[in-house]
Amino acid sequence: RAGARWFKTRQVPMQMEDICMYGALVSFAIMCALYLATIPTFFNITAIEEGLMEPYASLESDLVVMLKEFFVVQFFYWLTLWAVKWSLLFMFKRVTDGLPLYNRLWWAMLVFSILTFIGCCISNFTSCSSMHAWFTAGLCETPRDSRAKTISLWYCLGVDLLTDLLIMAIPIRVLWNLRISLLEKISIGVVFVVGIITMVTAIVRSVSLESTSGGGQVSTTWLMLWAAIEGAIAIIVGCLPSFAIFIRGRVSASRAQY
């Protein structure tokens, strides 16, 4: 992505859209590191539950650390996804410049995306009845907690899909009115609707997590797997529109007549 932008502009890509993508990459790396840090303790606990291993002295402290890592990792997971959304938004901002209506819609979309991100973070806090329950094994498994986790899962899926749809709608509507050939509209439009890939991934992830949950508790193994998959796909998708820069010159020329 950075190479494609540098190739066209011969400048180090440091626009807001680039900074957001760099942030998404850093957030994704931290998320993966946190998940990797939990694996030894997670496997030890699994082995103890199956009778393959005896409890050890530092088990309780290791368990608390693992639960804290699971708590924090969710924020970086959502930050990865939303940083990609913000990158796309800032890229599409250039399309709305000079168009008052679309410019207002862009700002509304930015505020809405920030609020939904905050909502996802809040849902993480409310997934357990208290922070003490969050960081104590076995206390976050009540019917209330199971409902809260389910609500959090589907709320985050809903706002994830909705923000993707709204973000894609902004440039597509503008592009349709540009005085360029239908083939060019389709070519650029395909680049802008790559968010559909992340939407499909998000749906598959949520359905898989729901189907593998037991007693309202989401499978930790599947949670880690799908977080890594969706985060990686989101970053790839966020990089793809940058290749539209090779045909952006023709769009800019036609936009002057719009």
From TrEMBL:
The record's section on InterPro entries has: Rhodopsin_dom_fungi, SAT4-like
Name where it mostly resides. membrane
Coiled coil ranges? none
Places the protein is found: Membrane
A GO CC annotation given for this chain: membrane
The topology of this chain with respect to the membrane is: Multi-pass membrane protein
* UniProt signal peptide: none
The UniProt entry's sequence similarity note says:
Belongs to the SAT4 family.
State what protein this is by name.
Answer: Rhodopsin domain-containing protein
Taxonomic source organism: Oidiodendron maius (strain Zn)
Per the UniProt record, the lineage of the source organism begins with: Eukaryota, Fungi, Dikarya, Ascomycota, Pezizomycotina
